[in-house]
Design goal:
The complex is a heterodimer of chains A (305) and B (368). Chain A has 305 residues and is of the alpha/beta class. Chain A has 10 helices and 14 strands. Chain A has 2 domains: 129 residues, NAD(P)-binding Rossmann-like Domain (Rossmann fold); 150 residues, Succinyl-CoA synthetase domains (Rossmann fold, 3-Layer(aba) Sandwich), CATH 3.40.50.261. The longest helix of chain A has 14 residues. The relative contact order of chain A is 0.10. Chain B has 11 helices and 18 strands. The chains are: A alpha/beta (305), B alpha+beta (368). Chain A: It comes from Marine Group I thaumarchaeote.
Chain lengths: 305, 368
């Protein structure tokens, strides 16, 4: 099992402790360039960019661009990359990264074909790498590193982990948590696709034993059964830190895709009722609206004191 | 997208899966021609992209011309779960010995294709008993696995051969077309032991459309949906009268839930995507102006870095151009919200500090 915190922060004896290098694939594209600028502003150490055919150039006089991931990794020794290429080029970019030895791949693009995601995950498994996404806002340790497209204003360093399928709901809920005094240890965007590189349960395994962790917030939505599987794992593992969930899409009609490719109820598979039932079984209260999340969390904290 | 039965069967035919003779039509003249060609008795089947057709009366047997003349228009006029008939399929009657269930779907949590098969088909999947579930990875179904599945549902001899053949063809179809789900229910065993697909359900992965021009002809898209897609929006039309607009699928779903909890009836789900600009919000208002049922608009934008003033500009522009004359109840989280409120003073758009307040105002303000 890869230690996500060690990947993101490094060890105290590392030269680049707390400023791990990140490579941006698709750095010269519209979104790639905007968000590279934002990530640099927000303190992330962007060490290289990749755009085939633009090797040797520099991004805004700061970041060297390479033609391939292999060249970028050879030059920087980075283990983390973030992908901004259009969905139809995602598989190529992801293979390029994993073959070059990337250990944490953050996949931003929406509309990646499921088959391409599954092929990427098969390769990632062989290479012992973590994929976050696709269709994710990314991952952030407030004040340390942001690999993604989220604004930093909703987040504040603290001791709560937030795992979310949705982007804007992640910002919204982190914001109300921050306002209520619950800063975040880490927040991970799972992504809104049917198949996720890091499922809720995988993200849970990554964070559940961190001594600093004081609480967990799960932001789910209709579609699939990853919330149910997580709830079962919470029960089986005896995880007893205060946990609260929120599920979006209770009122959505069946068999309609609600914006996210993965947000669809087929029969009873993927329904909000099924997820809420399982969370209740795991003694995890489910908020009715985002603003209720910190209230429920505070309630759980009191009880566990 | 979900294909209609006759479209799924076109693909089945292309891959050599056994079918009964059938013909699809969109009017009774065409239907009469097909009736002559097929000969009685046959089954009339409504073509809608939802399940539960039989229960709703969308599948009828015809024995003669009189029955045909009566039932064709009846079935054509049905509305099932809000869906009108796209076509009518006439299919020869089958002399069935037994009904099986067979599907291959993309297993989201296991990240591979998975087969479900049962010797007790013909009912909805939730009620299918004795299900055999097999994960098959990302490649075609091997002979070994196909044999195993046939054995586990108790098939032998010629029937087993027919089933294995169907399963292998179905798997080839699923993988080549990148389907999320392909289902044959029922897969019928005939009196002569032939194995035949009586129904077909086929759900594609829309994100792979760019690799499948051959499936384009099945795409069914309304003018409003097409415009939404062009702008990179997600739009789902609903039955109520309050249009719900926001940025991000999760946020808009959450807004729908809260609106419904408070007794409001959403008219649509409209996600304008990550950012929000004057242009994207104006285009969203343009789309909504085309839906006559809408009596009010609820806007929920969470923009950490979005200037709310640029969103306010879109509302003002929409009133100025007489695009809309509807009340707008909005919650705009972002910068310069005080200034945005000032800009909108005296207009029909109100900005609220929380989404809860905006929803309450919308429910009160839009009373049918």
């Amino acid at each position: 099992m890869i230690d996500i915190f060690e990947l993101l922060k490094g060890k105290p004896e590392d030269q680049d402790y707390m400023k791990k290098g990140v490579i941006v694939q698709g750095i010269t594209g519209v979104y790639g360039s905007i968000h590279t600028r934002h990530m640099i502003r927000d303190g992330t150490n962007i060490v290289a960019g990749v755009t085939p055919g633009k090797g040797g150039q520099k991004f805004e006089d700061k970041v060297t661009i390479y033609n391939t991931m292999q060249e970028a990794v050879d030059a920087t020794n980075a283990k983390i990359s973030i992908i901004f290429v259009p969905a139809k080029f995602f598989l190529g970019a992801a293979k390029d990264a994993l073959e070059a030895g990337i250990k944490l791949l953050v996949a931003i693009p929406e509309h990646v074909p499921i088959r391409d995601t599954m092929l990427t995950l098969e390769l990632a498994k062989q290479k012992g790498a973590i994929v976050i996404g696709p269709n994710t806002p990314g991952i952030i340790i407030p004040g340390v590193i942001k690999i993604g497209i989220m604004p930093v204003t909703p987040f504040k360093a603290g001791k709560i982990a937030v795992l979310s399928k949705s982007g804007t709901l992640l910002y919204e809920i982190s914001d109300v948590l921050t306002t209520a005094g619950f800063g975040q240890l880490i927040t991970i965007g799972i992504g809104g696709d049917p198949v996720n590189g890091t499922r809720l349960i995988d993200a849970f395994e990554m964070i559940k034993d961190i001594p600093d962790l004081e609480g967990l917030v799960v932001v789910g939505e209709i579609g699939g059964d990853s919330e149910e599987i997580l709830a079962q794992r919470i029960i089986d593992s005896g995880f007893n830190k205060p946990t609260v969930a929120y599920i979006a899409g209770r009122s959505a009609p069946k068999e309609k895709r609600m914006g996210h490719a993965g947000a669809i109820v087929m029969g009873t598979y993927g329904s909000a009722e099924s997820k809420i039932f399982m969370f209740n079984k795991a003694n995890v209260p489910v908020a009715k609206r985002p603003t209720e999340v910190p209230v429920l969390l505070a309630g759980k904290m009191e009880k566990s004191d | 997208m979900r294909l209609l039965e006759f479209q799924a069967k076109e693909l089945f035919r292309e891959y050599g899966i056994n079918l009964l003779d059938s013909k699809s039509s969109t009017n009774i003249e065409e239907g009469r021609k097909h009736a002559k060609e097929l000969g009685y008795p046959f089954v009339i089947k409504i073509q809608v992209p939802v399940g539960g057709r039989g229960k709703a009366g969308g599948i009828q047997i015809c024995q003669n011309d009189d029955e045909f003349e009566l039932k064709y228009p009846q079935v054509m006029d049905l509305i099932i779960k809000g869906e009108k008939a796209r076509a009518i399929l006439l299919e020869k009657m089958a002399d069935i010995k037994k009904e099986l269930y067979l599907s291959i779907f993309l297993n989201r949590s296991k990240r591979c294709y998975t087969i479900i098969a049962s010797s007790d088909g013909g009912v909805e999947i939730e009620s299918v008993k004795n299900q055999i579930i097999k994960e098959i990875g990302l490649g075609d179904v091997s002979d070994e696995i196909a044999n195993e599945v046939a054995k586990e549902i108790g098939l032998e001899g010629k029937i087993a051969d027919g089933f294995i053949d169907t399963l292998k063809k179905l798997s080839k179809l699923t993988i080549e077309k990148e389907a999320e789900l392909v289902e044959i229910n029922p897969l019928a065993i005939m009196q002569d032991d032939a194995v035949i697909a009586l129904d077909g359900k086929f759900v594609t992965d829309d994100n792979s459309n760019f690799r499948h021009n051959e499936l384009q002809k099945y795409q069914e898209i309304s003018e409003i949906e097409e415009r939404a897609e062009k702008s990179g929006f997600s739009l789902v039309e609903l039955d109520g009268n309050i249009a719900v607009v926001g940025n991000g699928a999760g946020l808009v779903m959450s807004t729908l839930d809260m609106l419904s909890d408070n007794g409001g009836k959403p008219a649509c789900f409209l996600d304008v995507g990550g950012g929000a600009t004057t242009e994207s919000v104006y285009e969203a208002l343009t789309l909504i102006s085309k839906m006559s049922k809408v009596k009010g608009i609820l806007v929920n934008i969470y923009g950490g870095i979005v200037k709310t003033t640029i969103v306010a500009e879109a509302f003002l522009k929409a009133y100025e151009n007489n695009l809309i004359d509807l009340p707008v109840f909005s919650r705009l989280k972002g910068i310069e919200s005080e200034k945005a409120k000032e800009m909108l003073q005296g207009s029909r758009t109100k900005i609220y500090d929380s989404v809860e307040e905006a929803i309450n105002a919308a429910v009160m303000g839009v009373k049918n």
